Amino acid sequence: MQSPDKIISRSGIKEGMKALEVGCGSGAFTTFVARAVGDKGEIFALDIQPKMLKQIETKLKRPENKDIKNIHLINGDALNMPFEDNTFDLIYSITVFQELPDKNKALKEMKRVLKPDGILSITEFLPDPDYPLKSTTVKMGTSEGFILNDVEGSFWNYTARFIKPHN
Fold it and tell me: From which residue to which does the signal peptide run (predicted)?
C-alpha cells in the first residue's frame, strides 16, 4: 500500500477543493482525502460497483469516521459521468485508470467535468497487475489534450499530474 499523505501531496489535493475520485473501490484513500479537503471541500466517490460504495458507507459509520460529512457516493461509470461540465477542481484515480475499458473515452469525460486549470492525478504502483510505465500514463494524458504538470515517485510507484487547459 501507498501512504495516503504521499498520494495526497503528489496529487495536488488541497483544502477546500471539490474533488472526484474515479474508481473509489472500497474507499482505501477516500476518507483520507475527505479530511485533506476539509469541511469546505467535497469528495465525490464514483464507482461502477454498488457493493464497493456499500463498503464505504459501512466505513463511514465507524466511530473514527463519524466526523466525515463531505463524501458523496456516486454509483456511475467513468465513461459516462453524471456531472455537469467544469464541475471539479481535481480528479484523481489510484490504481484504477488501466482497468477502465476505454481509457480515451474516460479521459475525455474527465476533461469535460474538470474545471479549466483543474488537476487530473493518476497514481499507479506495483504490484498492481495492470501497472503501466510512467511514459504510458503520460502519453495517454497528453494525447487527450491534458498538459503534463509533474510526475513524482519512482519506478515502483508514481503519480502523474496533469492540468486541463483553458481551450
Answer: none
Q: Which CATH number fits domain 4-163: 3.40.718.10, 3.40.50.300, 3.40.50.150, 3.40.50.2300?
A: 3.40.50.150
Asked if 83 contacts 89 with a C-beta cutoff of 8 angstroms, the reply is no
In 102-122, which positions are buried (b, 16+ CB within 10 angstroms) versus exposed (e)? ebeebbebbbebbeeebbbbb
Cell reading at 20: 472526484
What is the C-alpha separation between 30 and 52, in angstroms, rounded?
Answer: 12
**What band does 2 get if pLDDT is binned at 50, 70 and 90?**
confident
| Contact (CB, 8 A) for 162 and 141 | yes
Three-state DSSP at 48 gives: coil
Spatial separation of the C-alpha atoms in residues 13 and 89, rounded to whole Å: 9
Q: Rounded to whole angstroms, how far apart are CA atoms 90 and 33?
A: 11
Backbone angles phi, psi at 51, to 5 degrees: -65, -30
Sheet holding 157-163, edge to edge: 71-75, 42-47, 18-22, 88-94, 114-125, 157-163, 147-153
Q: Give the single-character DSSP code of 77.
A: B
Q: What is the pTM of this model?
A: 0.96
